[in-house]
Write a structure and sequence with these properties.
The chain has 326 residues and is an alpha+beta fold. It is built from 8 helices and 18 strands. The longest helix has 18 residues.
């Protein structure tokens, strides 16, 4: 049986201190610092090319770093230039290169990660991971014959096989269809919580970040701009760029002042949250399934709101203006 390692008490599981990583003459990560507690889920959020993946690979010990230090469970992580075989046994990375054994079956791919354990435990573990990642009917299919989404799920199963203390996920669900994506995400998130596995997830999707994170790290051009809880990012964004990652924004110019507000946050009556009244004129409606997008005009400018209830007959609404901190 696998015995979970006992981490040092009263310590962060992971500490990243002033990390800088350079490719050629281009510094892609610039003095990044943050920590991660045991069992915590952190999401690194930013646009493509902002250094998110580089941070994950550095934490996993897969890249040479130019400056800074990374400590895992109190011990310094050796980077790729200081280790014959790069990587860390207790840290697992799932990225866009699934690193599967192409000509082995789903079961064999997982079982190969469990060779150090007895047969009974291996069988139980393989069954549990195949069920977790919903690959039961592909158990005897070679990984080369799987779809991209199925390969992605198999890569996650392999990473979880020997129960790492830290799981690094580099946009791991981007090849899954909508239905499977949310189902698998819930299963993996619940599994990590239940087993005390710390997770760092990389994404450019603010909604996904809010679903996963205890804390979000917002990165831009290789620099960490903010570390905060999901609700604070959504309700109190620093600027328009940051706010845009967490959903659509309406913009109206009223009395020479730019007013920004979210399409999904409004009220038909004044309250503590939505206090600014807008006189509106209805234009059209687009049905989007369980809700509709309503277009209105106010102060000669178009904007939209999302609603499940019919609101085409209204002539005023109350909104919550977003106040940026910079």
């Amino acid at each position: 049986m696998l015995v979970r390692r006992v981490l040092h008490l009263n310590m962060n599981l992971l500490e990243v201190k002033n990390l800088s990583v350079t490719y050629g003459s281009n510094t892609v990560v610039k003095k990044a610092s943050f920590n991660l507690k045991k069992g915590e889920i952190i999401v690194i959020l930013g646009a493509s090319g902002d250094g998110k993946t580089t941070i994950l690979k550095s934490i996993a010990g897969l890249l040479p770093i130019q400056s800074g230090e990374i400590f895992f469970d109190g011990e310094k992580v050796k980077d790729a230039s200081n280790k014959l075989v790069p990587g860390h046994a207790r840290i697992k990375l799932v990225n866009q290169d699934f690193a599967l054994d192409k000509y082995h079956t789903v079961e064999e791919n997982i079982r190969m990660r469990l060779l150090q354990f007895d047969e009974v435990y291996r069988n139980l573990r393989v069954d549990a991971l195949i069920k977790l990642t919903q690959l039961s009917k592909y158990r005897n299919v070679k990984s080369i014959d799987l779809s991209g989404g199925q390969q992605q799920r198999l890569a996650i199963a392999r990473a979880l096989a020997d129960e790492p203390d830290l799981l690094l996920l580099d946009e791991p669900f981007n090849q899954l269809d909508f239905q499977n994506k949310h189902k698998i995400e819930r299963h993996i998130r619940s599994y990590a919580r239940k087993n005390g596995i710390s997770v760092i997830l990389v994404t450019h999707n603010g909604v996904e970040a809010m679903e996963w994170a205890d804390r979000i790290i917002f990165i831009r051009n290789g620099r960490i701009k903010r570390i905060d809880e999901p609700a604070d990012f959504f309700e109190k964004p620093t600027n328009k760029t940051e706010a845009g990652f967490f959903g659509e924004l309406n913009k109206l110019k009223i009395n020479d002042q730019e007013i920004y507000f979210r399409p999904g946050i409004f009220s038909l009556t004044k309250n503590k949250i939505c206090s600014l009244k807008l006189k509106v004129e209805y234009k059209n409606k687009i049905s989007l399934g369980w809700y509709s997008e309503y277009s209105f005009v106010s102060h000669s400018q178009n904007f939209k709101v999302f609603s499940q209830a019919p609101i085409s007959n209204i002539n005023e609404i109350y909104i919550q203006p977003i106040k940026f901190n910079d």
